[in-house]
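Feature request, filed as a ticket because there's no other form

It would be nice if the structure record came with a short human-readable summary line next to the tokens. Right now we just get the raw output. Example of a typical job, pasted below so the devs can see what we mean:
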Amino acid sequence: MRLKEYLADRLKEVFTEGKWVLGTNFKEQIVDLDWKQATQKIDDFNTIADLTFHIDYYIAGVANVLKGGTLDIRDKYSFDSPPIESEQDWQNLVSKFCLDADEFIELVENMSEEKILSDFVDKQYGTYCRNIDAMIEHSYYHLGQIILIKKRIK
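Raw output as currently delivered:
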């Protein structure tokens, strides 16, 4: 298996299709929630809506780089989600997440092996491969949080 196929499969596993690592994926965990559940505050945890926005923020930001754009995202803005005040707001975020995740996976599938192994934006950030792998690890971390928050909600 080529590296880009491996990374794309791992992204599908965590974002849209997988069940092997956690028995679920991001999409599966968010599509069955209504907006009140998604925004329900449990203790001092982030809400599921906040976490969904947070991961989508990074997906969209890194996808912009994969499309030849600049790296415009900043950690300090990654939780600056617009308020979710209706079911439509929540469904819009879920839809954006799913579309952005699918696009990101496709961009990775279409990368050359040479590009995957090259420096990401600046040498200090490591390679594209390292950044895609970090995206997978970061997403699993927050997916685990969502699973635990859902257990508390339900």
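Something like this underneath would help us a lot:
DSSP finds seven helices and no strands in the chain.
The CA atoms of residues 86 and 123 lie 43 Å apart.
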